[in-house]
Amino acid sequence: METVILPIASACIFMLMHLEDSRLDVLHGAMARPPVRIVLVLEMLAVAIRRGASISHALERVSMAIDDDLGGAIGRVVCRLHRGIAWTPAWAPVCDGNACGVCCTVLRDSLEASWRLGASPLPRIEAVVQQLDSAERNRIESEAAHLSVKLLLPTALCFLPAFVLIGVIPCIAAFAQGMFA
């Protein structure tokens, strides 16, 4: 009996230790990842535009409200736009592969049609915000589903042997004792 319990217990301990390590890795990954603020930036732009600001003025005000690389990048774009540089070339230097560049690309694509055609950017901003919220919600639900699967294996490895040892074996022993007595 001890020969069965020892491998099962060590497997449970190993799985629990691995689960704890993966949780720490997820926590460190979340802390290292910059917060996604593009939705907040788009909402601030929408508020400024609803109050009557032009696109360049709204971008300028939002860039002053943001204190990091994204604010500086938007500020540089606004300076280029004020100097008369066209929309796409004004955004080109800041739309690179990093997190700030991805945010700038979303901003550029969200506002481009309004800049070129003079239409209200509010419907497009609202659509992009809804799309980003939906994508984030889907990502969270997917990660929660993966987490439930990861939690099932250690739980099964711990509870199934206990159920067999406490519930099934005594029943079999009682049944065998009744058969042979």
Task: Provide structural commentary.
The protein is an all-alpha fold. It has helices spanning 2-32, 38-50, 55-65, 69-82, 87-91, 99-117, 122-180. It has a domain at 35-138. It is built from seven helices and no strands. The two termini are 24 Å apart. The model is unreliable at 19-36 (pLDDT under 50).
Short description:
It is built from 7 helices and no strands. It has 181 residues and is mainly alpha-helical.
Put simply, the count of helices is: 7
Major β-sheet profile = none
- Poorly predicted runs are 19-36
Instruction: Output the helix-strand order.
Output: HHHHHHH
Radius of gyration from the alpha-carbon trace, in angstroms: 29 Å
Sheet/helix structural class: mainly alpha
Which bin fits the share of residues in helices? over 70%
Beta-strand proportion: under 5%
- Count of beta strands: 0
Task: For the record, give the distance between the C-alpha atoms at the N and C termini, rounded to a whole number.
Answer: 24 Å
Shape call: rod-shaped
Mean pLDDT: 81
